[in-house]
Design brief:
The protein is of the alpha+beta class. 39% of the residues lie in helices and 17% in strands. The protein is elongated. The two termini are 15 Å apart.
């Protein structure tokens, strides 16, 4: 299993210039590859293969006056940019044929120098290394200072250097982990829970525990509003506008980091304490088109469930997702009678059959657990023999926080 470990980088002024040059060269090679394939499509010719593109756009281009500056950066960075273009086209065609799950993807587009996020990737043959003093030594860039928040569990296969919209630099290492060893490290548990995700409370567990929603975006709205107002008053293209844009980006980054840290801490706790976990599949895209859109996005349910998925796979736990049409809020968890739909304003209700007084969210969490069939025997092994495998092989490709990845 592959995971990403992200750490904050602090390049000096010269290293920032070298990184900017590498970002620009990688972007030019990517755009040249997209244009070459677009020209071939318009001419009715077969797409040039990646080997031909490598020779024409990198090797031969370095010998020309117009592209001689490509030789000032590592060749591995340029080759990986070509592979990114190849992967983008492969995903596009797979999406057209219906072989790729998820929403339809469009054809690769040209990258802009004004893009907020820039990245380059170094594989093992680039001869990058971590020095004895703890710096990240990158070819033609130098030894960059790293803020190590934890120890890498294995030798990284590659490293991606990222500059985010807030102007921060990160090193994202790809690590191959052993799920069997990770599962052995996790303490055994004979507990199983159901989780009801919501807005009033972020999560209500079948045990009765209610986890409050931090509402990071709502708490930062005043600060964001002020920063956005200052940005709107700056002249386009001016240095003051760029400073104001960075201020807005940093405010949003703080919200994102805090939300991700909350998701990681909660998902890690639930995975470590329970052998089986059941959650309800929510139509986040549909809820995001309602008047609750801002609150739904602020909660970040999808990111939280994704963390539960890959951590369940990593640590040998069982995660079961029940259908979104399961009437968890309409069924009495005590006697099983369907009592009908109820508006969101009804937080408590009494079953007409058995007379049990239910808390709406706690009752839903109990029904989620029952619908998943999570009954854990004394030995600690789940009744369902096969765990649901996580769909994501990595914690994510866009690292912001320096301490909350692979928690």
């Amino acid at each position: 299993m592959q995971l990403r470990y992200s750490f904050r980088l602090y390049p000096d002024t010269g290293q920032q210039r070298a990184l900017a040059k590498a970002f620009g060269c990688a972007r030019v090679v990517f755009n040249d590859a997209v244009l070459a394939r677009e020209d071939a499509r318009k001419a009715g010719q077969p797409f040039p293969r990646i080997g031909e593109l490598s020779t024409r756009l990198i090797t031969q281009a370095k010998r020309t006056v117009e592209r001689s500056w490509l030789g000032e950066v590592s060749a591995v960075v340029l080759q990986q940019s070509l592979r990114d273009a190849e992967t983008a086209y492969r995903n596009f065609f797979a999406s057209l044929k219906g072989a790729r799950k998820g929403p339809k993807l469009g054809a690769p587009r040209l990258k802009s120098r004004k893009d907020a996020r820039q990245s380059i990737r170094f594989t093992a043959n680039a001869r990058w290394k971590i020095t004895s003093s703890g710096r990240l030594d990158l070819p033609k860039i130098g030894a960059v200072k790293v803020k190590w928040s934890r120890t890498l569990p294995a030798t990284p296969a590659s490293v991606t250097v990222i500059k985010d919209s807030a102007g921060r630099f990160f090193a994202s290492f790809v690590i191959d982990t052993d799920p069997a060893a990770d599962a052995a490290r996790m303490p055994g548990s004979d507990h199983a829970i159901g989780i009801d995700l919501g807005l009033t409370h972020f999560a209500v567990l079948s045990t009765g525990e209610k986890i409050d929603s931090p509402r990071f975006l709502r708490r930062s709205e005043k600060k964001l509003k002020k920063a956005q107002k200052e940005l709107s008053r700056k002249q386009k293209g001016s240095k003051n506008r760029e400073k104001a844009r960075l201020k807005v980006a940093r405010a949003h980054a703080q919200v994102t980091d805090a939300r991700r840290e909350f998701h990681h801490q909660l998902s890690t706790r639930l995975i470590s304490e329970n052998q089986g976990i059941a959650v309800e599949t929510l139509s986040v895209a549909g809820l995001a088109r309602t008047r609750l859109a801002k609150s739904v996005h602020d909660a970040g349910w999808t990111a939280f469930v994704n963390m539960l998925e890959y951590k369940a796979q990593r640590y040998g736990r069982t995660l079961i997702k029940i259908g979104r049409y399961e009437p968890t809020s309409q069924v009495c968890s005590t006697c099983g009678v369907v009592d009908g739909p109820k508006p969101l304003s009804v937080r408590e209700w009494t079953c007409t059959a058995c007379g049990t007084l239910h808390d709406r969210d706690h009752n839903a969490a109990l029904n989620v657990k029952q619908a998943a069939g999570l009954a854990v025997p004394a030995c600690g092994a789940p009744v369902r023999p096969e765990p649901v495998l996580a769909q994501r092989a990595e914690t994510g490709s866009h690292g912001f926080s320096t301490k909350n990845r692979a928690a």
